């Protein structure tokens, strides 16, 4: 076991290692706060910046949770990732698109992005500007925003974010697009089109929810390479590992640790500068309420705030891997 914490090792490698954070838990649980500030150098707002959470009624923004998370990140010198400005999910119940014209919906989204990204222009370092715009077959998802503006909603969103937060890294984020498949192709082609049109997009987030089967990391490596060849940073933004090992369920935690290790090795080899787990402790994970049939221990810490073999695997990998050639070593 290495003596250094995950955060210390990540800093040595110039690697951003984050976790998704819930506002309530942050306020109420000192163990959670201790793990976050001790073990991670970055945080992502899990739900607090989603439109539905921010806008409980038509005339009001509620920034309380988002402010708490962003302040925590600032106080403890962490990079803060805002998730997310545009999504088809977790939208306000009161937003009834059929009562608005397309132009009104466009102005609504513009005002939303200007208000939210503008508020945090100096405190949020990275934005998941658009989340999950592509379907599994590679076609565009027909959302409220797509219906009103067509595919143009995506580039408009990036331009609006860039207008008010010009220093932030702007990211497109999606799931099931990690390896080589029709959805990954659709995302790749979308990003190529956006870049050809000069849209200010800096990064692509591959979520990496390893839920049902072990991802093919060789295919992930090839996809990462082609995305980087477009000139984009690639981030792993929502990692959790819950796929069952049907043959040897008793070895689940070892297999899980091995996968975390292989994934980190891929990230280091491919110069991926950001890896984020979707939560801190198993008990904080979204998975148990969404997929009760899956293993409910997808993260690096258990419900008692203790490290797991998955944590040991990534810490020892970082400790054993030279930071030469990693991001920090190349900075002037
Ligand atoms: O805020 C309400 C609260 O007022 C209410 O009392 C409570 C009762 O169930 O529900 C609360 O809302 C829940 C919200 O999380 C906050 O806890 C929603 O029901 C629940 O659906 C929501 O789940 C979130 C999910 O996104 C929604 O799709 C998960 O926490 C969150 O981890 C998950 O995150 C997504 C990423 O944003 C995008 N990628 C996939 C990822 C996993 O689904």
Question: How would you concisely characterize the structure shown here?
Answer:
The chain has 332 residues and is an alpha/beta fold. 43% of the residues lie in helices and 15% in strands. Strands 1-2-3-4-5-6-8-9 form an 8-stranded parallel barrel, surrounded by 6 helices.
List keywords for this structure.
alpha/beta, 8-stranded parallel β-barrel, binds ligand G3I, single chain
Provide structural commentary.
This protein is an alpha/beta fold. The protein is built from 14 helices and nine strands. The chain has helices at 6-13, 23-28, 30-39, 51-54, 64-75, 102-119, 144-149, 152-164, 182-196, 217-229, 252-269, 287-290, 309-320, 327-330, and strands at residues 16-21, 42-45, 79-86, 126-131, 169-174, 203-206, 209-210, 233-241, 274-277. It has an eight-stranded parallel β-barrel with strand order 1-2-3-4-5-6-8-9, surrounded by six helices. The site of ligand G3I has 9 residues, from loops. Ligand G3I binds next to loops.
Report the end-to-end length measured between terminal Cα atoms.
Answer: 31 Å
Order of helices and strands: HEHHEHHEHEHHEHEEHEHEHHH
Classify the secondary structure makeup into a structural class: alpha/beta
| Bound ions, cofactors and other small molecules, one mention each | ligand G3I
Number of continuous helical runs: 14
> What is the overall shape?
globular
Cα radius of gyration in angstroms: 19 Å
Task: Tell how many strands the DSSP assignment holds.
Answer: 9
Order of strands across the main sheet: 1-2-3-4-5-6-8-9
Q: Hey, roughly how much beta strand do the residues contain? A: 5-15%
**Biggest sheet: strands, sense, closure?**
8 strands, parallel, barrel
Describe the oligomeric state of these chains in a short phrase: single chain
Fraction of helical residues: 40-55%
Kindly report the average pLDDT value. 95
Stretches where pLDDT is under 50 for at least 5 consecutive residues are 328-332
């Amino acid at each position: 076991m290495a003596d250094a914490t995950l955060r210390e090792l990540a800093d040595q490698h110039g690697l951003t290692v984050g976790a998704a954070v819930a506002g309530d838990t942050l306020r109420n649980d000192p163990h959670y706060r201790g793990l976050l500030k001790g073990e991670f150098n970055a945080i992502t707002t899990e739900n607090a910046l989603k439109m539905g959470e921010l806008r409980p009624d038509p005339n009001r923004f509620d920034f309380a949770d988002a402010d708490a998370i962003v302040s925590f990140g600032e106080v403890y010198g962490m990079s803060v990732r805002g998730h997310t400005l545009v999504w088809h999910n977790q939208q306000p119940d009161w937003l009834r698109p059929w009562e608005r014209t397309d132009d009104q919906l466009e102005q609504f989204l513009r005002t939303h992005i200007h208000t939210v990204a503008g508020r945090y222009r100096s405190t949020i370092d990275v934005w998941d500007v658009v989340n999950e715009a592509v379907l599994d077959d590679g076609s565009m998802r027909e959302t409220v925003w797509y219906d009103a503006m067509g595919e143009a909603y995506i580039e408009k969103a990036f331009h609006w974010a860039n207008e008010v937060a010009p220093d932030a890294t702007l990211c497109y984020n999606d799931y099931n697009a990690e390896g080589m498949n029709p959805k990954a192709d659709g995302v790749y082609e979308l990003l190529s089109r956006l870049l050809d049109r000069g849209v200010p997009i800096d990064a692509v987030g591959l979520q990496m929810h390893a839920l049902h089967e072990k991802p093919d990391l060789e295919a992930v490596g090839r996809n990462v390479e082609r995305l980087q060849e477009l000139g984009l940073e690639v981030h792993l933004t929502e990692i959790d590992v819950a796929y069952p090992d049907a043959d040897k369920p008793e070895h689940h935690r070892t297999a899980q640790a091995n996968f975390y290790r292989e994934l980190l090795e891929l990230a280091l080899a491919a110069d991926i500068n950001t890896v984020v787990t979707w939560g801190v402790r198993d008990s904080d994970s979204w998975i148990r309420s969404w997929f009760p049939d899956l293993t409910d221990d997808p993260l690096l810490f258990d419900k008692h705030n203790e490290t797991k073999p998955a944590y040991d695997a990534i810490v020892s990998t970082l400790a054993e891997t030279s930071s030469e050639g990693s991001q920090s070593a190349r900075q002037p």
